[in-house]
UniProtKB/TrEMBL annotation:
TM helices/strands, residue ranges: 7-29
GO MF term (any one): heme binding
Keyword match Transmembrane helix: yes
Assigned protein family: Belongs to the cytochrome P450 family.
Keywords, alphabetical: Heme, Iron, Membrane, Metal-binding, Monooxygenase, Oxidoreductase, Transmembrane, Transmembrane helix
One Pfam match: p450
Name the record gives this protein: p450 domain-containing protein
Source domain of life: Eukaryota
Cofactor(s) the protein requires to work: heme
InterPro entries: Cyt_P450 (IPR001128), Cyt_P450_sf (IPR036396)
Keyword hit for Membrane: yes
Species of the source: Cephalotus follicularis (Albany pitcher plant)
């Protein structure tokens, strides 16, 4: 008579065999042909082994496997086929996803599931009417000269009053500093002033600093959600309010309380200003004040609670877009410049040739500086990979099939490292590739350089 262990083993073997048979039958009967299967995909377990093995170097891993495919596009299959999609670094496909067939590729549940608590219905997390409304308001504000000058004044003030004195002192006393931390502090102060009109000092244990600490925690946890091979794990942690999800819930509470506090303060400030300056067009220049002004006459925001929720979501979205992305871009820029002394000399020569203070529109004359920044972000884009959700079945320009409900990722990081796009020297830092024969900056092809995204959702500051 067979013992219990042998019986269990036999039963498990039968179940596994039947599962494998049904899996292959499913693929045979329902799978659409694709030109670009994933090089590291296996039956049943999909890409899980490769993801777990390369989680510490995720973006380089994606670049490596994309380089092995015929057209820099691959099909992605997660564990038990619970999620399927494609990932591409092909400029033609990126054009198709973000521009030519824009309406078929949305943010959808892929973003809202992960970011809803943090971004709510903010511009970077929604589609349709909500996105159109916010884009219209934001586009108008970002096109005004007054906002451009306000941002320029804030940045110049932070550079002259804090950043340069700090760096000068560190040089004078031969102090070793962590440049990334210094630049994070710099962007903290800039984005808080531009977004709220309030200078946040992360060095002090105030409610302001608590907001940014909570914000950093929330962003980190959202990133881990995106990279989770089994989303059901973080969703269960959220349901039982344990581990990182418990910490996330507390962080969101801090963010919401601070945002509401600032909004109510601004409402009171604006009310007092109206009473004191009846008929005057004077207004605060920060983003929150501008959005409050824009929504004050909009019939969609008659309900005060609805209006405050809208303001909270859109401002938090812009903080997310401007804070870490700027410090990340600057950190990589200085790291690359430090390793290329020739580029440093050329940059200094260009900057020393200017005799005036640097203002927003005057920055356009620094062609080599612009080229060096573009080259830095080509190699190290602040947002290395982005994603969309497919509304209906589609075929990409390279012939890859994309199924309804699939995710469609595009990797700016991998695109910048693709030889077919940037040549054999694609991994080298060469600002000259951005300049023409006269040393003038050449406008980039956004689909070869999707750092600021492309199409209707292109970054407002690059629109």
């Amino acid at each position: 008579m067979l013992d219990l262990n042998t019986t269990c083993l036999s039963f498990f073997t039968i179940i596994l065999s039947l599962t494998s048979i049904f899996y292959f039958l499913f693929l045979l009967l329902s799978d659409h042909p694709t030109k670009n299967p994933c090089p590291e995909s296996y039956p049943i377990i999909g890409n899980l082994p490769g993801l777990l093995r390369n989680r510490h170097r995720f973006h380089d891993w994606v670049s490596d496997i994309l380089s092995q495919t015929p057209s820099s596009t691959l099909q992605v299959n997660f564990f038990l086929n619970l999620s399927r999609g494609i990932c591409t670094a092909n400029p033609l496909n990126i054009d198709h996803l973000l521009h030519s067939n824009f309406n078929n590729y949305i943010k959808g549940s892929r973003f809202s599931d992960v970011l809803q608590e943090l971004l709510g219905d903010g511009i970077f997390n929604v589609d349709g009417h909500l996105w159109t409304l916010q884009r219209k308001i934001a586009s108008h504000e970002f096109s005004t000269k007054s906002l451009n000058h306000f941002i320029s004044d804030v940045v110049n003030s932070q550079i002259s009053d804090r950043l340069i004195p700090f760096l000068s002192h560190a040089c004078n006393v031969n102090e070793v500093i962590d440049l990334q931390e210094v630049l994070q502090d710099f962007t903290y102060r800039n984005i808080s002033t531009v977004a709220f009109g309030v200078v946040v000092d992360p060095a002090y244990k105030s409610s302001n600093a608590g907001f940014f600490k909570a914000f950093d925690d929330a962003v980190e946890i959202c990133s881990s959600r995106f990279l989770s091979p089994l989303p059901v794990i973080w969703k269960m942690k959220r349901y039982f309010n344990i581990g990182s999800e418990k910490r996330f819930k507390k962080a969101i509470q801090v963010i919401n309380n601070y945002a509401l506090e600032i909004i109510m303060f601004k409402e009171k400030e604006e009310s007092n200003t109206k009473e004191e300056e009846e008929g005057s067009e004077t207004r605060n220049q920060d983003l929150l004040s501008r959005f409050m002004q824009s929504t004050s006459t909009n019939m969609e925001f008659r309900d005060e609670e609805h209006k405050r929720k809208f303001l909270r979501d859109i401002i938090i979205s812009f903080v997310m877009a401007g804070k870490d992305s700027t410090s990340t871009a600057l950190t990589w820029f200085f790291w690359l410049i430090a390793g290329n002394p020739r580029c440093t000399e050329l940059l200094l020569a260009e900057l020393n040739a200017s005799t005036s203070l640097l203002h927003y529109h005057e920055l356009k004359k620094f062609h080599y500086l612009h080229a060096a920044l573009s080259e830095s972000m080509r190699l190290f884009p602040p947002v290395p990979i982005n994603s969309r959700l497919t509304v209906d079945d589609d075929v990409l320009p390279d012939g890859t099939h994309v199924g309804k409900g699939w995710f469609a990722d595009y990797s700016a990081y991998a695109t910048g490292r693709t030889e077919k796009v940037w040549g054999l020297d694609c991994r080298e830092f060469k600002p000259e590739r951005w300049l023409n024969g006269d040393g003038l900056l050449q406008p980039p092809d956004h689909f070869r350089f999707p750092v600021f995204h492309c199409g209707p959702r292109m970054c407002l500051v690059n629109d």
